[in-house]
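ugh finaly. both done.
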Amino acid sequence: MFEKKIATLILAIFVAGIMVFPVSLATCSETDNEVAIDFRPVSIESEGWQIKGLLIYPEGAVEAPAVIELHGFTGSKDVHTNERYMYSNRYTHESIGKYDLTEAFCSRGYVLLLIDLRGHGDTLGAMDYGLMVKDVSNAITFLQEQPEVDGNRIGLFGHSLGGMVACVVAGMDERVKATALWAAPAGMEISAGLMVHDILNLIPIIGPMLSGIVDMLLPIIMGMIPSIVGYLPFGALDSLIGLVGSVVTLSGYTPISIGIGAGISPEGFYFMIGSCKIYLHHLPVLVKQLTKDTPYPIDYVGKISPRPLLIVQGQEDTTVHPGNSELLYENAGEPTTIVRVKNTDHYFTDPEDKRDEVLTLTAEWFADNL
């Protein structure tokens, strides 16, 4: 009788093991290889406008650290997501490569907020650098109100133009606890000057002399550009073109598209660059902001300290001169880390393996510093 009970017990344990083992294996497999991720479209009210975004988070996240990612000029939130999490992919730029931020950050337990900067993607409107800074501060407030987010652990991550905005916001807003910049200009005048110097230094003998002249003239030229553009009748011209566009629309035709990247609508003539639509009447304000009345990152990077800062720069970047990152590093406080990535471009996509390298590096840096 005793042996029979033992045999029954062993059989029961064996059957239970068969039933439990596959479940345990499936659970481990899912945990080890892939994190379940939820997402939802969001709309953030900011300065009279609706900033469109995508909130992505590990399933069941509660009071988790969060990172706001800011794309570059002409980009959008969709450029830096996996196709599974896109809800509007018409602005995806395969030519510049994509960074799967969702996997990199959510697998480490982070909430990710991707937004379309003002004048880009689904946010639309006029591109306005000054308002972008306010928009990101309002996005921080929005994140602090979300149950998935720990409002005391919010970071900023910006690429190129997004890096400029991220640097300024982090310098102004102490709610930003960690900041990562990819290929961020130190300032438009600075960036232009670095490019000009490189070109002039290719000229034998007289190149260095011309560089000195440029140092004197460039601030004057950059200061004059907004005034010159401001005097040009872009507003009146756009109103006239907009009238034509209205007549065309009222007549039953769709607004005129002039090839790729330009068109006429009831609002006027526009250029379409990536996800960014720029009308003629936008140009005076935009030029003035980017060349004159602009909060430059170089003036705010030192104010980020003692909060941690990461600067990542491709050494073959021909869009934003690598000298920008060096100047930001020299003017930053502690703790600041700079990573100079050899043999790669502005988007870290040439060669492609650099993209994954810098993304993993950045996600791990946030995991250690936020």
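ok and the 2nd:
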Amino acid sequence: MNSIVSVSSISKKYQLPSSKKEVGGSFFNKIFKINKLEDYWAVKDVSFTLNKGDKLGIIGNNGAGKSTLLKILSKITKPTTGKINIQGKVASLLEVGTGFHPELSGRDNIYLNGAILGMTKKQITQQFDEIVEFAGDQIAKFLDTPVKRYSSGMYVRLGFAISAHLDPDILIVDEVLAVGDADFQKKSLGKMKEVAAKEKTILFVSHNLTAVANLCNKTLHLENGYVNQFGETGEVLNHYLSAMQNNLLEQTFEHINVAPGNDLVRLKYAKLTPSLVGNQLIADVRSSLKIDLEFWNLIDNQNLNISLHIYASTGECIFNVGTNPKILNKGIVQANLTIPSYFLNDGNYLVSFMVVKDKSIVLFNFEEVFNFEIADYREETTWYGKWPGYVRPQFDFPIQQVSQKL
């Protein structure tokens, strides 16, 4: 079978200001504040092929190169080395508002995006009502308003609606489920399944492993820009999940321009630290868990709060907890949380958090910031089976003799 997407040894190099501090330096460099640059390979020697109808999930931790790979495949940026061969029309939804002209209305941008995809005006008109209906009542109300006045949620609704309805041969989606409310996320995944049923080819970047498992027949696992594994989804996800417990529970991004996020917020630092129990390095049910987060807030005077979610490795949300909303200005924002000991049961868990504006507008969902394992611990027992449930609290639950009469 002829491949519809063929990627051969592509790499992408950026030059970033060096993080290394030098002693001294020339007078000329000091006067003009010239920084040395160092090479940063966002993607390195990536190869794979897809046939018509394949659905590829692309997974990996933040900074693994997933979004860069999709930008190369969408021809937004050129690879430094390597070759790409794509057969057919490509529709891309990579970032909020990608491909929109801010001065044009929502209506005009539907036709503009369709034209970019190679569709005729007649073909766009035939799909127009379905696009607007899918995007929702709020888009319909402001259809003739310039999109520069749209919220980020409205941007992503309209952008996904256009990409999903204009009948592309290949649909490229990067974290479409990271913005928007739960109803729209459900609707988006349903539409992607509908597109998939038509034997279209989909490339789907997501930290939602359940969505990848349900949608994709093939999966590409990227790690530090390299291909860790490419193959059947079940095999790749099993390998990925089994390696989770060995992951470093800390992420630091020195450069804001390579940190995950968008033009509103970007992640700077995240760390999960279990309390020490004896000399154990791995958390068990006796350990409390401290979560430290830092992010760059890129807009002044925002009413922000953080909603943090703990998921089981199978995808179920165990609980979420939020900070109190607070007016914050541009700069670095920090939040800290401690999960008490004897709360989570033994097992594997994922941590995600959303930065939320005005209590309801999701600016960005930092999914799978890190993952961790909690080990079992029980004293004086002969039963070592899996303790049931996801939580394992110690409640005040006394038992006592109240009578000896039968």
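summary for the 2nd one i guess: The domain at 245-374 is CATH 2.70.50.60 (Coagulation Factor XIII; Chain A, domain 1).
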